[in-house]
UniProtKB/TrEMBL annotation:
<feature type="domain" description="tRNA methyltransferase TRMD/TRM10-type">
    <location>
        <begin position="2"/>
        <end position="228"/>
    </location>
</feature>
<protein>
    <recommendedName>
        <fullName>tRNA (guanine-N(1)-)-methyltransferase</fullName>
        <ecNumber>2.1.1.228</ecNumber>
    </recommendedName>
</protein>
<comment type="subunit">
    <text>Homodimer.</text>
</comment>
<keyword id="KW-0489">Methyltransferase</keyword>
<dbReference type="InterPro" id="IPR029026">
    <property type="entry name" value="tRNA_m1G_MTases_N"/>
</dbReference>
<dbReference type="InterPro" id="IPR029028">
    <property type="entry name" value="Alpha/beta_knot_MTases"/>
</dbReference>
<dbReference type="InterPro" id="IPR002649">
    <property type="entry name" value="tRNA_m1G_MeTrfase_TrmD"/>
</dbReference>
<keyword id="KW-0808">Transferase</keyword>
<keyword id="KW-0949">S-adenosyl-L-methionine</keyword>
<dbReference type="InterPro" id="IPR023148">
    <property type="entry name" value="tRNA_m1G_MeTrfase_C_sf"/>
</dbReference>
<keyword id="KW-0819">tRNA processing</keyword>
<dbReference type="GO" id="GO:0005829">
    <property type="term" value="C:cytosol"/>
</dbReference>
<dbReference type="GO" id="GO:0052906">
    <property type="term" value="F:tRNA (guanine(37)-N1)-methyltransferase activity"/>
</dbReference>
<dbReference type="Pfam" id="PF01746">
    <property type="entry name" value="tRNA_m1G_MT"/>
</dbReference>
<dbReference type="GO" id="GO:0002939">
    <property type="term" value="P:tRNA N1-guanine methylation"/>
</dbReference>
<comment type="similarity">
    <text>Belongs to the RNA methyltransferase TrmD family.</text>
</comment>
<comment type="function">
    <text>Specifically methylates guanosine-37 in various tRNAs.</text>
</comment>
Length: 232
């Protein structure tokens, strides 16, 4: 079973993880998600989690001490842990990374805010033999913090775990799973009834019953869409 621990100063922000597909996956015991408040690990009256940057500059940096205590608390066993630190400076998240995370047993998400987390936190855990540290970004833009990025990654990862999706065949032909010789493709366009809607017909090939030709058409369409995205 995949155990996910998420550390944030806004635990409420992560409430949507209890809903829908992920809520059901937890009820079924396929995944376990625990959300932790970083401020629990502060000892000053203001429960402060940040401080001014060494070397000067704008903004605040998250202090290493509460992060160390919070991560230690959720990694007390001698198991292996994958620590995912959310930062716009990280490696770009993609379907391949989601597949890798879905094959793990223990994921810890560190949701940074402000100008990020003191760099020694990643350095320290990367030096421990039972940890792998991944600094991950969900795209080339800056969010207010890592919470939304964590939700994106948890959702994309959890749906790859056997049993989480009602129909496992859904995974077979979706975007970024289809490949041709040039790499991963986005999905072909989909249609359902009615066959004519507001004067627009469903492509006739899809009504032909010729599965070989339908398959060829879908691959062509997936290639066309993928190509169009790179031309924009
Ligand atoms: N924190 C702020 N921006 C982010 C991004 N793009 N990805 C991950 N974490 C972030």
């Amino acid at each position: 079973m995949l155990k996910i621990n998420i550390i944030s100063i806004f635990p409420e922000y992560l409430k949507p993880l209890e809903l829908s597909l992920l809520g059901k996956a937890q009820e079924k015991g396929l995944i376990e998600i625990n959300i932790h408040d970083l401020r629990k690990h502060t000892d000053d009256v203001h429960h402060s989690v940040d401080d001014t940057p060494y070397g000067g500059g704008a903004g605040m940096v998250m202090s290493p001490q509460p992060w160390g205590l919070a991560i230690d608390e959720v990694s007390e066993s001698s198991e292996h842990f994958d620590l995912i630190v959310l930062t716009p400076a990280g490696k770009k998240f993609d379907q391949k990374m989601a597949k890798n995370f879905a094959s793990k047993n223990n994921l810890i998400f560190a949701c940074g805010r402000y100008e990020g987390i003191d760099a020694r936190v990643s350095q320290y855990y990367a030096s421990k033999s039972n940890f792998t540290v991944h600094e991950v970004s969900i795209g080339d833009y800056v969010l207010g913090g890592g919470e939304v990025a964590t939700m994106v990654i948890v959702e994309a990862t959890a749906r790859l775990i056997p049993g989480v999706l009602g129909n496992p065949d859904s995974l077979k032909e979706e975007s970024h799973t289809l490949t041709n010789k040039d790499g991963s493709l986005v999905e072909y366009p989909s249609y359902t009834k009615p066959a004519n809607w507001r004067g627009l017909d469903v492509p006739a090939i899809l009504l032909s019953g010729n599965h070989g030709e339908i398959e060829k058409w879908r691959i062509k369409e997936a290639e066309r869409r993928t190509q169009a995205l790179t031309e924009e």
